[in-house]
């Protein structure tokens, strides 16, 4: 199978879905001739034209609002938010409109739209180009949220998101756009929204992660296996909402110890929900404290690479946290 980057997998998904279904269109800032700031839509403007790859004004509220309206009359919009940090002007449209329309109309109206946004630190972007915003949206019923960690899942999940009858948010780890590579089979396939993936079998500690942190967790798990003989079970959540509670609980019951890794602020971050679930429903299996390794509770990721590296979890700090927990 060919090995491609995460960004290429996302581009392939959009290309294939646009070719498959003429209702699919893309809108966002610079998505047209430029192909997006990260080149996720490169080449699609030339192939499908300005009526299906539409450059928007610098107004995230209008990007999402237009997507909602188009979705409600039968189109399949893919709305790109240039950086997840810029999504907040559209917050009301997402949580009070897109998320609620199906419920408030008793199922009479659907909103089959996708909102893509690169999230997270690691590129020296500073406060306004490095935020992790997934916890804000995971709180609102009516939204599905996926975070791919590898090219295979990125392509398959995005294709599933386009075909879903209700709004799906796809948060993409931009640090991994060209860093993370993997095999992607040619031809049609999808990855279902919902199921988590056990990406490494282990017996001593379970580590939960998603996106860029999952990529680092796999490296850390290999480090502690080689140097310390610690056997880690790694769970890639992939879908944050709806959460695959079955896989989450089964993995914890197997090892009795849990480390949850995410790069967002610790307080009220998404991993706190995983910790609560384990404590509520698998307390009797607990063989050590439920631990979280996260970014600090500070306003944002610093610009300087040295401070950014200090701020974000990495394979070394994850490995140290695994050793700590395994010692209980």
Structure description:
There is one protein chain. This protein has two domains: 3-183, Rossmann fold (3-Layer(aba) Sandwich); 197-326, Rossmann fold (3-Layer(aba) Sandwich), CATH 3.40.50.920. 49% of the residues are buried. With 328 residues, the protein is an alpha/beta fold. The strands form three sheets. Strands 3-2-4-5-7-6-12 form a seven-stranded mixed sheet, sandwiched between helices. Strands 9-11-10-13-14 form a five-stranded mixed sheet, with helices on both faces. The model has no long low-confidence stretch (mean pLDDT 97). It has helices at 6-20, 44-48, 60-72, 91-98, 101-104, 134-138, 151-163, 212-228, 245-255, 271-281, 305-311, 315-326; strands at residues 3-5, 24-28, 53-55, 76-80, 114-119, 144-146, 168-173, 181-183, 197-200, 205-209, 232-236, 239-241, 258-265, 291-295.
Average pLDDT taken over every residue? 97
Strand arrangement across the biggest beta sheet: 3-2-4-5-7-6-12
Order of helices and strands: EHEHEHEHHEHEHEEEEHEEHEHEHH
Any idea what the radius of gyration is? 19 Å
- Structural class call reads alpha/beta
Q: Describe the biggest sheet?
A: 7 strands, mixed
CATH architecture annotation of the largest domain: 3-Layer(aba) Sandwich
Helix content: 25-40%
> What name is given to the CATH topology of the largest domain?
Rossmann fold
Distance between the termini: 42 Å
Supply the key terms:
2 domains, alpha/beta, 14 strands, 328 residues, five-stranded mixed β-sheet, 20% strand
